[in-house]
Write a structure and sequence with these properties.
about 0% strand; about 230 residues; 2 strands; mainly alpha
Length: about 230
């Protein structure tokens, strides 16, 4: 089976371990995404399946956030507690809907990406408890990434990735990144991907897994667990 035929995306070597019983016991019932894997092994494709349902109106933004956070926190023990607090900050999903409005477009442009990022940072708009850039960029990645699109695509930026970025990527802080730093990173990753015949998210995976720049013999890398 090739990488493209199975559950793994290019550059994704293994699924994330999720203790679904703990998450079931902690998350609000309405936030549990229908059809989400109960086996405890979650691939990126599993989260993208919830994105597809969200785009079709068959999943709520709260279910989308829950799926992203389960994948993002993985086996980390405090993950369910923090995720529940994030969801409590938006009981009807309106703040998430507001932030993701432009991302839901078929091909979000740079201004839509900037706007969504800024809304998640702004308490007056869509900021949620325990949902800083390291995790809301995970949400932006899944909600807005198109594998067949052109131009900038949203990517995950957490401390692991930030610490491994070269200076020319434009990320100056260890955390609390501004929207322009995130966009600079997206531009850099897009350029690197084009030069190597990769997907932009393969660049992010390789950075997280400490395989950047990738050798000819190595896969781009993967994400064994969240920050």
């Amino acid at each position: 089976m090739s990488l493209h035929d199975g559950p793994a995306l290019p550059g994704e070597p293994a699924p994330i371990t999720v203790h679904t019983d703990r998450w079931r016991a902690t998350l609000p019932a309405d936030a549990w995404p229908t059809g989400f894997p109960e086996t405890g092994a979650v691939w990126r494709r599993d989260v993208f399946a919830v994105v597809d349902a969200w785009r079709d109106g068959a999943a709520s933004p709260r279910q989308l956030l829950a799926a992203v956070l389960m994948w993002g926190y993985g086996p980390i023990g405090y993950g369910p507690w923090r995720a529940a607090r994030s969801l409590q900050g938006d009981p009807d999903g309106s703040r998430l809907t507001h932030a993701l409005d432009g991302i839901a477009a078929a091909t979000p442009d740079e201004e839509a990406l900037r706007t969504a990022y800024r809304r998640f940072r702004d308490p007056a708009e869509s900021r949620l408890p325990w949902l800083g850039p390291a995790f809301f960029t995970k949400l932006l990645y899944f909600a807005g990434y198109k594998r067949d699109a052109e131009g900038l695509r949203p990517l995950i930026l957490d401390r692991v990735v930030a610490n491994r970025l070269p200076a020319e990527a434009g990320v100056r802080r260890r955390s609390g990144w501004l929207s322009e730093e995130w966009l600079a990173y997206l531009r850099w990753a897009n350029t690197q991907a084009e030069a190597r015949g990769l997907q932009p998210d393969e660049v992010e995976m390789a950075l997280f897994h400490d395989r950047w720049p990738p050798s000819d013999a190595d896969p781009a890398g993967g994400r064994p667990a969240a920050e």
